[in-house]
From TrEMBL:
<feature type="transmembrane region" description="Helical">
    <location>
        <begin position="59"/>
        <end position="79"/>
    </location>
</feature>
<feature type="transmembrane region" description="Helical">
    <location>
        <begin position="361"/>
        <end position="378"/>
    </location>
</feature>
<feature type="transmembrane region" description="Helical">
    <location>
        <begin position="179"/>
        <end position="202"/>
    </location>
</feature>
<keyword id="KW-0812">Transmembrane</keyword>
<keyword id="KW-0472">Membrane</keyword>
<keyword id="KW-0813">Transport</keyword>
<feature type="transmembrane region" description="Helical">
    <location>
        <begin position="261"/>
        <end position="288"/>
    </location>
</feature>
<dbReference type="InterPro" id="IPR002293">
    <property type="entry name" value="AA/rel_permease1"/>
</dbReference>
<feature type="transmembrane region" description="Helical">
    <location>
        <begin position="152"/>
        <end position="172"/>
    </location>
</feature>
<protein>
    <submittedName>
        <fullName>Amino acid permease</fullName>
    </submittedName>
</protein>
<feature type="transmembrane region" description="Helical">
    <location>
        <begin position="308"/>
        <end position="331"/>
    </location>
</feature>
<feature type="transmembrane region" description="Helical">
    <location>
        <begin position="384"/>
        <end position="402"/>
    </location>
</feature>
<feature type="transmembrane region" description="Helical">
    <location>
        <begin position="91"/>
        <end position="112"/>
    </location>
</feature>
<feature type="transmembrane region" description="Helical">
    <location>
        <begin position="414"/>
        <end position="435"/>
    </location>
</feature>
<feature type="transmembrane region" description="Helical">
    <location>
        <begin position="441"/>
        <end position="459"/>
    </location>
</feature>
<keyword id="KW-1133">Transmembrane helix</keyword>
<dbReference type="Pfam" id="PF13520">
    <property type="entry name" value="AA_permease_2"/>
</dbReference>
């Protein structure tokens, strides 16, 4: 790696990039909206609602509202920054342009954590729905469909689905986005069916006591953190995904128009869907009956003696959950791509195939997340992914506020309403949710970023003497 690449302080604009490093603009707002909804609606609502209910009880509904509010504020900041800096790096690119290289490296390093672990977590969640079907139809033993902590050997279905989605991405951006849009419709229909079937069984008695573990995070005798905010910190995983839209800015035909539509539209749609599903779930059955299930919504339907609807929901999850993997694996490859093009990773990683796909990065990412998904359980993966996301969301909100102060008169294709209030809520909310994460997750996140900063400083120090000699 040359010295010049590591000493860059100027972002390579998409139009200035070399031909082999220039992504093609093939997407429009329907593709982006489907990508956002596909990324947001996934493991969080289909699987983590059980984990959240175990921490907050029926007040998991409130946890969804709080997490959704914080994400909505972050989404507005993303929409503004994405139209000002329509590159492929999302929060990394905005931080590089507004704050500087070191901060951008930290955010890029956090995004690597977020996107990689999201893909792994969703693959594990997908396996939770696929495993009973595979065992019943093909006779595959559960030991080959669960990680070691759940008593199995390796989660082969999770590894398999990551490989399938990675292969699809290698075929081309527009092709994978079109298929994604079709699968998103399947997923939305499945959730509408769940609400329609479960809502008539709503029993207000199931909501009492509403918040048995209190509001703030507290640690029980078993060492598990509980409370409304502890649940919100995990359920937060269910809302993000709109940031994957921002990574597609460079491949969007009209980013100034299409990005705000997709980012804000996907968040509004998903908040409505999530609150409806959460209310139907905790109202239909006591939360303790599905809190520990890997497929809580399907379990609820079976307990309501609706086996047909349960099978439909589980089948829809198996078919449609890969849309989340697709969106985040896509986003991860574009963030790596942007960092490589800016010189913070080897420039060879920014080369594209003849079909316009970053093949090397996609394959490398798929291998890493496949190993994680094959071994680790869902809740630990999701919690650590949340830590990286919270850092990125707070950074984007800060960048938006700083640009409002530095360049208040600069034209903005999308302007966040009440920017100081919205940005402040996003930053403060992300900080509070981070403090509500399990202590072990906070420690792992600090260790991860400490490692990242150490690598950055080591490489820059190694390169500086060579730069002096060349100078």
């Amino acid at each position: 790696m040359s010295v010049a690449r590591w000493n860059k302080r100027k972002i390579i604009a998409p139009r200035e990039a070399a031909g082999e490093q220039q992504l093609k603009a093939t997407l429009s707002w329907p593709h982006l909206l489907a990508m956002g909804v596909g990324a947001i609606v996934g493991t969080g609502i289909l699987t983590l609602i059980g984990v959240g209910a175990g921490k907050a009880g029926p007040a998991v509904i409130l946890s969804f509202v709080i997490a959704g509010l914080i994400c909505a504020c972050a989404a507005l900041a993303y929409a503004e920054m994405a139209t000002m800096y329509p590159g492929s790096g999302s929060a990394y690119t905005y931080t590089y342009a507004v704050i500087g290289e070191l901060a951008a490296w930290v955010i890029g390093w956090s995004l690597i954590l977020e996107y990689s672990l999201v893909v792994s977590a969703v693959a594990v969640g997908w396996s939770g729905y696929a495993a009973p079907l595979l065992q019943g139809t093909l006779g595959i033993p559960m030991s080959l469909m669960q990680g070691p902590e759940l008593g199995g050997l390796v989660n082969l279905p999770a590894i398999f689905i990551i490989g399938v989605v990675a292969t699809l991405l290698l075929l081309g951006t527009r092709e994978s986005a079109t298929l994604n849009a079709l699968l998103v419709l399947v997923k939305i229909v499945a959730l509408i069916v769940f609400v329609a079937v479960a809502l008539p069984y709503f029993n207000a008695d199931n909501l009492h006591p509403f918040a048995p573990n209190g509001f703030a995070k507290s640690t029980g005798p078993d060492g598990v953190e509980r409370g409304v905010m502890a649940a919100a910190a995990i359920i937060f995983f269910a809302f993000y995904g709109f940031d994957a839209i921002a990574t597609a800015a460079e491949e969007t035909r009209k980013p100034q128009r299409d990005l705000p539509i997709a980012i804000v539209g996907s968040m509004v749609a998903c908040v409505i869907i999530y609150v409806a599903v959460a209310a139907a779930a905790v109202g239909a059955l006591p939360y303790t009956s599905f809190a520990s299930s890997p497929e809580p919504l399907a379990l609820i339907l079976r307990e309501l003696n609706q086996p047909g609807a349960a099978t439909f929901l589980a089948g829809s999850a198996v078919i449609a959950l890969p849309t989340v993997i697709l969106a985040f694996l896509y986003g991860q490859s574009r963030i790596f791509f942007a960092m490589a093009r800016d010189g913070l990773l080897p420039a060879s990683l920014a080369r594209l195939s003849s079909r316009g796909s970053p093949v090397r990065i996609t394959i490398f990412t798929a291998v890493i997340v496949g190993v994680i998904a094959g071994v680790f359980p869902l809740d630990e993966i999701a919690a650590l992914a949340n830590a990286g996301t919270l850092a990125a969301f707070a950074a984007v909100a800060l960048c938006m506020i700083l640009m409002r102060r530095r360049a208040p008169d600069q034209p903005r294709a999308f302007a966040t309403p009440l920017p100081w209030l919205v940005g402040g809520i996003a930053i403060a909310g992300c900080a509070y949710l981070f403090l509500s994460l399990p202590a072990q997750t906070q420690l792992y996140f600090m260790l991860w970023n400490g490692l990242g900063i150490g690598i950055y400083l080591l490489v820059t120090m190694m390169m500086k003497p060579q730069a002096d000699v060349q100078g």
